[in-house]
Structure formats: structure tokens, C-alpha cells
């Protein structure tokens, strides 16, 4: 059986990391049996989550996990999609993963109120005497990462504007379609769902969150994905499951 490693459910989300949620949704779409376990960064093959263990093989990165499932198990997450649709899917996925994600990280980790409501809880297992030092060190490292990626070089208003452009693009392309590419879910929906629920999550207050939550079609989409692939849940990130 495949084991998916992540940080676990948190903040009203299937996992605190949208990349883990993407991988979990792909596994649920595949209908392959799997179980979930808490990660260990020392075990993670790429030093990050998600990663899976499949027949003794450790594999990291949500996109590489998808390719592994497709190759080993003969799964076609994009059955029936045209070359144009595949190109659009890839572009939207990279927009979410390499642009919107970093804007969301900024608002979770660099805005003090949001950090105290969310990420600070990741450090509960650190001994109290050294916890402030560890927290400060990790946040400094992350700020450096954000600066290296580029988003951290912008003002808060500029980061908000960049993130909202991605959110608006997602909502505009989804339109009134049931799923991103039509009436049936495709591989792109695992990614769009994961990043939509992450952006909508009401725990982390920001203009970016409010912009995401203001798109009724995105909220309904999250509800449909929840009903389809997380039937044990009545809602995710405050979005009610809908048939």
C-alpha cells in the first residue's frame, strides 16, 4: 500500500501544505489504496513534503508523485483532454505552485497575527527554552527564501496584487464549468482545488484571502471537489460540500 507523508490536517484543510493536499487528491482520484502518515524531513527524499513510500521506494515532489502513479499504475488523470487543454493545465498549475503559493506563504508566515494563529503551532514540540530561538531562525530562513524566490522583494500591497491576479485568473477560467476542464475532473483539479482551499482558508486574514473568498464560483468548486473526493467531510476551509 502507498503511504503519503505530510504534516497532517490543520487550519480546516486536509493538510497544512497545499502540495500535500494536491498529492492526496490525486491518490483519491486514482482510487488506489493508500494511507497517510506524519512526515520526517530526515526521511524525505527531497527534504520537503509531500513524499510517498510505494513498495519500499521513497519519492518526493507532488508532480513527480503524479508521474509515478501514471507510469506505474497506468492512470490517465487527463483522459480526453486536447493538447491545448494540457498546455493550459500546465500553465495554471505552475501559476498556482510558483506564484500564488509564495504569496500565500508570505501572508501565513510574515504577517505576525497570521503566524501566531497558524504556523507557530508547528513548533509546539520544540523545548520551550529554545523555542523562540528556533522560531526566529526558521522565519529568517524563510524570509531569505522568499527574497530569493522574488516575492519577498515586493511590498505587501504588491504581493497582494500579484496573488489576486492569480486568483482572478483561476476564477475567470473556471467560469461556470463544473470542473476546470469541463464536466469531469482532470489532473489539474487536484492542484486547483488544493490551492483554492489554501487561499480561501478563513484563518489567515488578508486582502488576498478576502479576494479568493469573494469568488462564489471558486467556493462552489471547492464544495464540489469536497463532495466528490472527500465525502467524509461536510466542508473544507468553510466551503460547504455540494453534490
TrEMBL record:
Gene3D superfamilies named in the record: 1.20.1050.10, Glutaredoxin
CDD domains named among the record's database cross-references: GST_C_Metaxin, GST_N_Metaxin_like
Record Pfam families: GST_C_6 (PF17171), GST_N_4 (PF17172)
Domain Metaxin glutathione S-transferase: 165-225
Keywords: Transferase
A GO molecular-function annotation: transferase activity
InterPro entries (alphabetical): FAX/IsoI-like, Glutathione-S-Trfase_C_sf, Glutathione_S-Trfase, Metaxin_GST, Mito_Protein_Transport_Metaxin, Thioredoxin-like_fold, Thioredoxin-like_sf
Thioredoxin-like fold domain sequence ranges: 18-114
SUPFAM superfamilies: GST C-terminal domain-like, Thioredoxin-like
PANTHER family xrefs: FAILED AXON CONNECTIONS-RELATED, METAXIN RELATED
Name of the protein in its database record: Glutathione S-transferase
Amino acid at each position: 500500500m502507498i503511504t503519503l507523508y505530510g504534516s497532517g490536517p490543520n487550519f480546516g484543510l486536509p493538510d497544512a501544505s497545499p502540495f500535500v493536499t494536491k498529492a492526496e487528491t490525486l491518490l483519491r482520484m486514482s482510487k488506489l489504496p493508500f494511507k497517510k502518515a506524519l512526515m520526517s524531513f530526515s526521511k524525505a527524499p527531497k527534504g520537503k513534503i509531500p513524499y510517498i513510500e510505494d513498495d519500499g521506494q521513497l519519492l518526493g515532489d507532488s508532480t513527480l508523485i503524479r508521474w509515478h502513479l501514471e507510469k506505474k499504475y497506468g492512470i490517465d488523470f487527463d483522459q480526453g483532454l486536447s493538447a491545448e487543454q494540457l498546455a493550459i493545465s500546465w500553465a495554471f498549475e505552475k501559476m498556482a505552485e510558483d506564484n500564488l503559493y509564495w504569496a500565500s506563504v508570505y501572508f501565513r508566515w510574515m504577517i505576525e497575527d497570521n503566524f501566531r494563529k497558524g504556523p507557530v503551532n508547528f513548533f509546539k514540540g520544540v523545548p520551550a527554552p529554545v523555542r523562540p530561538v528556533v522560531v526566529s531562525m526558521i522565519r529568517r530562513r524563510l524570509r531569505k527564501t522568499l527574497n530569493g524566490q522574488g516575492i519577498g522583494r515586493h511590498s505587501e500591497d504588491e504581493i497582494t496584487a500579484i496573488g489576486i491576479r492569480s486568483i482572478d485568473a483561476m476564477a475567470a477560467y473556471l467560469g461556470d464549468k463544473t470542473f476546470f476542464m469541463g464536466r469531469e475532473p482532470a489532473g489539474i483539479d487536484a492542484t486547483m482545488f488544493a490551492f483554492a482551499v489554501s487561499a480561501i482558508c478563513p484563518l489567515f486574514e488578508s486582502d488576498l484571502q478576502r479576494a479568493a473568498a469573494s469568488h462564489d464560483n471558486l467556493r462552489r468548486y471547492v464544495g464540489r471537489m469536497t463532495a466528490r473526493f472527500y465525502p467524509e467531510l461536510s466542508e473544507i476551509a468553510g466551503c460547504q460540500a455540494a453534490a
